[in-house]
Amino acid sequence: MAIVVETGLRRHGAKRAAGSLVSQLRHAAGICTIAGSFTFLFALVIGLIR
What SS3 class is residue 27? Predict the structure, then answer.
């Protein structure tokens, strides 16, 4: 009985950890996308000035 409860908690904890990991990856991907677009625009402006 105790083992069943323990595995149930572990599964729930692993699911929660995976969910937060996915949200962290999405957040990091969003930051990288924004930084990349700013870098591209900055390089474009420098190229136009020169």
Answer: helix
Cα distances (Å, whole numbers) of residue 36 to 12, 17, 33 = 36, 28, 5
- pLDDT tens readout for residues 1-38: 555 555 555 555 555 667 788 888 889 999 999 999 99
Specify the pTM. 0.51
Between CA 14 and CA 22 the distance in angstroms is: 12
SS (H, E, C) the chain: CHHHHHHHHHHHHHHHHHHHHHHHHHHHHHHHHHHHHHHHHHHHHHHHHC
The two most distant CA atoms of the chain are separated, in Å, by 73
